[in-house]
Every structure is written in C-alpha cells, then in structure tokens.
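Review box. Two proteins, two foldings.
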Amino acid sequence: MSQPLASHHTHKTSAPLNNQTRPKTYSFNISNPLAEKKVKWAVILTAIMMVAEISGGYVYNSMALLADGWHMSTHAMALGLSMLAYVFARKLSKDARFTFGTWKIEILASFTSSILLVLVAALMLFQSGQRLLSPSPIHYDEAIFIAVIGLGVNIICAWLLKDNHSHGHNHGHDHSDDHNDHSDHGDHHSHGNHDLNLRSAYIHVITDAATSVLAILALIGGKIWGASWLDPVMGLVGGVLVAVWSYGLIRDSGRILLDAEMDAPVVAEVIEVIEASPLRAEINDIHVWRVGKDQYACVLNLTTISPEANSEYFRQQLSIHEELVHIIVEVNLPMINNPYDQSY
C-alpha cells in the first residue's frame, strides 16, 4: 500500500483580486515597436496601390487588374489586422486580466491573417479556373504597367517587413512572485526570436509579390505570343503557392493558441534536469506552454524521498534553461512516520 504524501510547495492561494488590488501582473511579452512602425507603412503603401489597381481596372476595363486590386484589398486588411494586434498588445500590456501578458493577441492576429490567406487562395483558384474556361480580352499594356508598379510596392513592403530578429523591449516583466526564481531575466533578450505576427504580414506581401511576378510573366507571354491561357494558369499556380504558405502559418500559430507545446525540446530538457538531479525525484505531472517568443511557463508535480528537497531547490536546478521564465514546482514527500504530520 502506497504511503500518503505531504505536499510541499510555494503556490499560495488567496481571495480573488480585482485590477485595483492585484499586486502584480505576469507579462512576458517583448514588444516590437520597430515591427509595428514597419507594418503601418506597409498598410499605407498597400492601401494606395489597392486603390490604384481597382481604379485602373475600372478605367481600362481590365478584369485582371480589378481582380488583383480586390486581392490586394484582402492583404491590406490583413496587414491592418497585424498592426492593430501590435497596438492592442502594447496598450493592454499592463492589464491584469491577461494572466500571462498580451503576446497571444499577436498570435491570434497571425492565425486570423492566415485564414484570410486561405480565402485569398480559394478566390485566386476560382477566378483563374473561371477565366481558363471562359477567356476574356486583356488590355496587356495597361495591365503590365500597373502590375509592375504593384510589384515595386510589394518589394518595398517586403523589405520593410523582413524579420531581422532585432531585439524588442520587455514590458511589465515582473517575476518577484514565489513561483518564479527568474527575476534576473527581467531584461532578458532571446536570440533567434520569430515574430509570427510580423511573419504573417511578410507572407501576405510576399504572396502578393509572387502573384504579381506570375501575372507579369503571363501578361508578357500573352502579349508576345498570344498565349492568353498563361494568365489563368499562372493564377492557378499562385493560388496553390498561397495555400501552402497559409497552411504553414495556420499550423504554427494554431499550436501556440492551443498550447500544443508538449513536443517542444524544452519539455525533454525539463525532464532531463529532474532525472539528473542529485536529489532523486519522480515526475507525477508536467505542463509546459509558451508565454512569449521562445519563452515558456512550466508546472511540475514531483515525488521525492529526500527530506531536504523542496520546490526552491528544483526551480534552481531548472534555472539553467533561460527560456523557462515562469516555474511552479510542487513537491510531495511520503509521510512515513506520522500520517498527520504536515510540517514539511
């Protein structure tokens, strides 16, 4: 028969606190003001080009330009969504209602943006298939001219949005609670961060640039060789390309929103630290999830027969992994002598 366990942990409970009485908040979000500024410029440039293409489509009676203009409008909306995500994440960074900060606002924007990309891909495939079955006259010179300008705008936006992994600034990174021994990470900058919100905006621009290149090639081929079928075929190729890129975004952002992180390398590292500890302990339960760019929270429930072992000891052991920014450890000790003694 197994021995009863005494629970030794530092997870303190108290009555619910409102925003006025809450002593601290947990915010692991590293803001990216440079990215926010870049996305804003990309929104402005894309919106201007969108108006130019839609206007040109009506003036020159070009369905190709009109379709590309409305296609660009979805990108402008997605870029605007990315910009709003940065704004709200920054403005709400001190809001105590967000248990682990506002970083996932950006991830939610990335996921929503990727859904819009799927709709764009479906629209491109539908329109290209329709045009392949029912060809219509194309005003090549006007379409090529505006498509080249659109490509130039997309190249500028792609340059603006390229993620060079610059360091952000941490807001409200308060870790003075008993749960966490990582207060020294208050100004921690993680190398190799990937901003999924910025990446989604970048992919929107790149897909638009790719479709512009395909459109220009198809229009030139149609004008020189009279191969009008190239235009819808290139549209089909572009639609497939956009669908593939959007799938990658949905996969990466979706797993973060659903906390599907138990296959992350950091989980194996946590288990390895506990198993290699001089004070032997058995893992009863483990939860790991992401709370920021390359930053994780971890909750552990352990059983050990070492009386000197406590939660602080194991948190110190785990502190070698700086990506673990919030750690809660509950230690259970077998009550061999007195089942009523809970002095541990």
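Next protein.
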Amino acid sequence: MRRVDERHASRFSKQLWFDEVADAFGFSRLRAEWNGLHRCSRQSPFLSWDWLYPWWRRLSPESALRVFTLRDSAGHLRGLLPLCERRLGLTGARRWGFLGDTDVGSDGLDLVCLPEERSEFAARFADLLVENVARFDVLELLDLPSDTPLIAALRARFPERRAWVEEIPRYRCPRLDLQGSWDEFLQGFGRADNLKRRRRWFERQEGFAIERAEQPAALRGALETFFDLHAQRWQADGGSQGIDRSAVRAFHRDAVALFAESGLAHVHTLRLGTRALASLYGLTWDGRFYFYQSGFDPAFSRLSAGLVLMGETVAHSFQRGLVAYEFLRGEERYKFDWANAETRTVGLSIVPKRLAGVTQRALQMAIARLKGSARSMLGDERWQSLQRWRRLGVRRLRTFQGRWRGD
C-alpha cells in the first residue's frame, strides 16, 4: 500500500506518503530509523522498536503486522502507527490494536512522530484508518496517553451512525517529579525515618551491597536473579500477573539486550553476601527512570529490602539529574507514598456497525455482565481469592505445557 497525501505539501513543501509494513523482514529493517524518530518524539519507551519487535516475535507471532509509516519525498520516516491484527475468539472478528498491548504493561502507546507534528499527523493517520475500515471489525487502541490528539481525531471521523465509539479509563500511573535534591525530598517523605533506619541496619551487616547492572554481560545474570525474586514474591498470591511464563521472560531477555546497547536498561540487586534479597528492573528514557517491576525474597520481607532498594534507585535518579521517576501503571499504596504527580491512560474502542462487529460487541458485553454478576454475588474478598486460584491454575498449566514442549 502506498498513498500520497498532498495535503501536507503546502506546509512541508514536500509530499508525504503512507506505506504499510506487513512482513517480518520489513519490520526488522525499520529498527534504525524507527528508533531515530522515537528518540526525538519524547514518547513512552514502550513505543521503541526495541520493545515492540521482541513483543511481536516472542508473544504474538501469529498476529498480522499492520505497521503504517508516513514518509516524505526524500524517503525519511516522519511518523508511524504500530498496529497488528488478531482474530478474536468465538467470532473470529478482525481486531486491530497496538503492537505491545498485551502481557507486558506497555503504557503510553500511540502514534510515533515529533511533538510539533502530533496533532496534524493524528488527523492524517485517523483518515488512513477510515480508508481501511473495511479491513477490521474492531479497532481497540489500549493504554493511550489521556491527552493524545489521536483520540479526538478518531472520534471526529467515526460518528455514531457509523460505529460504536467508547473511551475506556485504563490506569493511573504515579510519578515522582524530581525537584531539588534527594536530601530535600527526604524532608517531606512520609516514610523517610523508616527508610533511613532500614538502610542503616543493612549498612551494618557484613556483605551488604547494592549492585547496578547496566552492561549487557552483567544484565544477563542480574535479569535471571530478578526473574527468580519476582516469582518468589508472587508465589503465595498464585503467581505474577506480569511475568508469568517462559515466553514473557524470553521477551524481556530480548528487550533488555537491545536497550542495553544504548545503556538504557538497568537491574538493581540488593545482596547480603552471596544471597540476593531484592531486585528492581527499570529503563531510563528521555531523562526519566521507568520502574518496571521488582521482586524480593519473602523469607526476608520484614527487613524491608524492597523499600531500601527503591530508595537507592530514587536517590540515584536525583544524582543523575533525571527529571522524573515513573512508577507506571498500578494503584499500589507504596507507589503513591513516593509519588507527587500522576498521568492516566485510556483505551479507545471503535466497532463499525457491521455484522462481525455487532456480534463481537454483543459477546463482550455479555461476558462483562457475567463477570460483574459473579463478583457481586461472591463479594470482593471471595472474588479476589478466586482470581488467585485462577492465576495459580493458569501458571501450573503453562508450566506443564512448557515442560511438554521442552521450553
């Protein structure tokens, strides 16, 4: 597919044209220019080729690529919309959604372009999706920034007579804006006394160390330690919902290796002697530290090793002159203990009023009603207990399947 968009000519004195990348070879060749554009976009690290290519390869290889690019007449990449197509369950409906929108917590998915071109390019990509409406039954864009112009552009082009359009709240994403110094921050931090006391205790112990892995060789071992501690931390709750099987771990190994080439991946480990007690995995991007996940040894939970380690990474972020520490999605209390701001993500669902879309929408609404009724009948406590048992069962099944396949 190639279409010239002459509406840009007056502004840029060059024509811009759309193309579609739909094969693995074309996707793999995009890395350098995709990442070059992304570095200038000031957008989420989860829009990087280094994140989305491993996701597709490891977690959704059956998905058909629908990566739309916008180039100028010189062939330079100016914008892209990284989508893929999956078939949905019983109905077989064709769902278009973002690459990276399942399994790995990719906050801030969006079109990729320079900040000053975002509104105009949102309109252009929205027009492109209207032109391709016959190719999908559901357009589901999850975890968009709440302020992206893509939402308004799509709403304007899919009126009620043509499609059901629904904007769905997704996640609160706490953030600590790094103003002043670490010492100044501690003066207003409600858990400062506990943090200092726990830190002093560790410093008196023989063999205490906090290691920071950033080079590829060191990261490989540190990431395996992180996987182990993360699994231990969630074992009593039926297993992790985020890193729950071998394919997800393989994705993270690939993504961390790619980010490590630019020194952007970090795994911090707190140890007493040879024993790792806590681990924290994150990324640095555009002057921000993104706390992705952590883990700790439950046998030592009373020592608050996780608190001490997070304090170390926040202090290090102040020292490096970063502008923010991003806690990403989730309303866990400890995140808001640290945070002084937040962003929000939303989902946008567009279902054209055709038979396949109507059928899929009716099925989704029926499932949602059943879940709501079950939760009301059981109550929150029993519902959460049921979810833990469900996660444990899924985890055991996936472990069995992995062993059967020889993973």
